[in-house]
Structures are given as structure tokens and as C-alpha cells.
Design brief:
There is one protein chain. This protein is of the alpha+beta class. It has 7 helices and 14 strands. The protein has 2 domains: 100 residues, no CATH class; 241 residues, Porin. The protein has an 8-stranded antiparallel barrel with strand order 3-4-5-6-7-12-13-14. It has a two-stranded antiparallel ribbon with strand order 1-2. Helix 1 runs antiparallel to helix 2. The chain starts with 11 loop residues before the first helix and ends with a strand. The N terminus is likely disordered.
């Protein structure tokens, strides 16, 4: 028979009750010693000289009254123990040392032998249908295999623009373990910009030339006309400086990283992306109405001159390669240009080396396949990752 060690709460109420039980027990032993287990077996008496003058029925009644009192006190101790420790209801009942039977003492000495292993506490298995809450990251947040990475490097650009600078970052959240590594969910945001030299032909300049030639009396059929009717005096084709920006947002990507090589971790990644392209063409360095008009540039127009008015209207960052924004908007600093929202997909590969458990360095390549003609581009970047 195994005996499980029992805890006794050393509170003033418990000590008081134990002292009361000990007093009753001492009184009972002085009048009539008890033999046997008070909780498991019948109580017998040993006659003494004090009880010689009492009848057996009176002695038996006295013993039974004392036993009932002890039982009530034991139940009260049990109740107090449950109130003090909610888990005490699953423990063995508290029995004072003065009431332990010889059989319980023997079992206790057997289980406390030096070579006997202590009994392991029983762990109740969850019943079928019980809710088992998942592990929360807070407050016991630890190393869960997530990563925030910052990267920068070079990129080719859509629409045959020159190569440019690319920077951005992504967050990598672990999803599940797979053979050889792990599968993660990734969200990427990046921005690239480029400056290119292009040629643009402005249809607005063609209309201005037609108006000027009509005013000057020059006609297209006159071979001796000092200027061509539509292509002069203002140039209709200019060399422009094109500034373009591409915002890349990939909200859903899956990343497979090989983790079996230790610090060195190659990976592949792929997913869907959205792209915003915004660009503008500036002809300020090549277009000058004063030079093109010659002596006509000084012709008065209101409070200004013809050359100054045409420069204000036709010189600057063009929208769609046709005409700059209105002078009033440019003076206020209102952004101008042209752009579009595009959809596509992104695939890539890379590798990182864990410098420390929370820091890594790596390189990667990504290909962006975007809808539309000449819209695809590539990114080559170096990255720094922070892991937690």
C-alpha cells in the first residue's frame, strides 16, 4: 500500500484546530485508550482502573461521543484546507498525527525508505472535447523563427529605363516545418528610382507652332517660309531627363528556407505583387523658346514677352511627355507626373548566414513579372536580417 505525503497548512486556524484535536485525544486516552484506525475500522477499548466503576454501556457511549467529535473536527480541518488551497480537494484528507493508526505509520515508513522512489504526481489527461488553448506569444515571447530584413541594392527598371537604386524590407513569419527546412509567410515592400535620358515629341508644341505660323502669315505651301509650318519655330522633339519611381508591394509570398546546413541557409521565395509606377520627363535643359523664336521672342504679350510666356507653359517636368503642369501648380509645389497601378508576380532566391542567433547577412535576386509591355524588372540586393 503506497502512502502519499500530505501537506499541512500552517495557519493559525489549522494550528488551533490541531491543538483542540490533540486535547480531545489526550482526554480520551486518559479515560480509555483507543486501538485501531479511527477512519477505517471499529474502535475498541482497554479497561483501566478509572473505568472499573462504570458500566460497559456508559463507557461505550462516551467513546462514541468522543469519536463523533473527532470526526467533526477532522471534517472542519479538511474544509479549511480546501478553502486555503483550491487544489486540496484532489488531495488526501488531513489526519492529525495523534490519530494515525499503526497500519498507516507502517505504510509511511515503507514508502520513505532510502531506496524507494517517490511517487510521481498524476497528470490528468484532457478529456475528449476539452478546449486546449494554443500557445500565446505574449507574455512568454521567445525565439519563434521570425525575421525582419532590410535590403538595398540595384535594380533594372520597367519600360527600358536605366538601372537604378532599390531599397526596402520584408517581414518573414514562420508557418510550418517541412522536410529539410521551414515554410514562411512573407510581406515585402520596396521602392526603386531611376534617372534616364530619353527623347520625347510633344504634340502640344506642334499646335503652338501652327498657331505661331498662322499669326506670322507663314503657310505650309510656301516653300520660302522661314520655318516649317508644324515643326518650327519651336522644337517638337526634345531630349528629356526622365525620373521614375516604382513602389513594389508583395502582400502574399511563401518562402522555403533550408535549415539543415546550420548557419548557412539558402532559400527560394515567390508570390503575388502590386506595383505603382510614377514618372515625369523634364525638358528644362533642352527647350528654350527665346532661342527658338529669335527676334520674335521679345514680342510683348501682356506684361511679359512671347518667349517668356512660352517657356512658362512649355518648359519643365512634362506630363505624358506632352506639356508641363500649369505654372500656378508648379509654384505651389503640387506633385505632377504620370503613373499607373499594375499587378504581377515575383520569384527569387537567396542565401543568408547567421552571424549570431539574432542577426544574419545575405544576398538575393528577385524577378518581377509585371503586366504590360516592357514592364518586367529585376532586383539584386544585399540584406541584413534581425531574428526573434
Amino acid at each position: 500500500m503506497s502512502h502519499r505525503p500530505m501537506r499541512v497548512w500552517c495557519t493559525p486556524a489549522t494550528v488551533l484546530i490541531l491543538l483542540t484535536i490533540a486535547a480531545f485525544s489526550a482526554s480520551a486516552q486518559s479515560t480509555q485508550p483507543l486501538q485501531g484506525d479511527v477512519t477505517t475500522g471499529p474502535v475498541t477499548t482497554v479497561p483501566t482502573s478509572t473505568d472499573a466503576g462504570l458500566s460497559n454501556s456508559v463507557l461505550q457511549a462516551r467513546i462514541e461521543a468522543q469519536q463523533r467529535q473527532i470526526d467533526r473536527l477532522s471534517a472542519l480541518v479538511e474544509k479549511l484546507e480546501v478553502m486555503l488551497d483550491p487544489d486540496a480537494s484532489g488531495q488526501a484528507a488531513l489526519v492529525p498525527a495523534v490519530l494515525r493508526s499503526s497500519s498507516m505509520t507502517a505504510a509511511s515508513s515503507a514508502t520513505s525508505a532510502p531506496d524507494a522512489a517517490p511517487a510521481a504526481p498524476a497528470v490528468a489527461a484532457p478529456a475528449i472535447g476539452d478546449y486546449i488553448p494554443p500557445r500565446e506569444l505574449l507574455p512568454d515571447i521567445g525565439h519563434i523563427g521570425a525575421q525582419i530584413a532590410l535590403f538595398e541594392g540595384g535594380a533594372t527598371n520597367p519600360y527600358k529605363a536605366d538601372a537604378g537604386f532599390f531599397s526596402g524590407g520584408y517581414i518573414d513569419l514562420p508557418w510550418r516545418n517541412v522536410p529539410g527546412g521551414k515554410l514562411s509567410y512573407e510581406i515585402l515592400v520596396g521602392l526603386q528610382r531611376s534617372v534616364s535620358t530619353m527623347q520625347t515629341t510633344s504634340g502640344v508644341n506642334v499646335l503652338v507652332n501652327a498657331a505661331l505660323n498662322s499669326y506670322l502669315g507663314n503657310v505650309a505651301s510656301t516653300e520660302t517660309s522661314p520655318t516649317s509650318y508644324l515643326t518650327g519655330p519651336l522644337p517638337i522633339t526634345s531630349t528629356v531627363q526622365e525620373r521614375a519611381k516604382v513602389l513594389t508591394v508583395a502582400p502574399f509570398e511563401l518562402k522555403y528556407a533550408v535549415t539543415k546546413f546550420g548557419r548557412f541557409r539558402p532559400y527560394v521565395v515567390g508570390g503575388l505583387g502590386t506595383y505603382v509606377w510614377i514618372g515625369s520627363d523634364n525638358n528644362s535643359k533642352t527647350f528654350n523658346a527665346n532661342t527658338a523664336l529669335g527676334s520674335l521672342a521679345g514680342a510683348p504679350v501682356g506684361n511679359s514677352t512671347l518667349g517668356a510666356v512660352l517657356n512658362a507653359l512649355l518648359q519643365g517636368s512634362q506630363i505624358g511627355g506632352l506639356v508641363p503642369t500649369a505654372p500656378q501648380l508648379a509654384a505651389r509645389g503640387v506633385p505632377h507626373g504620370q503613373g499607373n497601378l499594375l499587378f504581377g508576380a515575383q520569384v527569387g532566391a537567396g542565401a543568408e548566414v547567421r552571424v549570431t542567433p539574432k542577426l544574419s547577412l545575405g544576398i538575393e535576386y528577385r524577378r518581377n513579372q509585371v503586366e504590360g509591355k516592357n514592364a518586367a524588372f529585376n532586383m539584386f540586393t544585399f540584406k541584413q536580417g534581425f531574428h526573434w
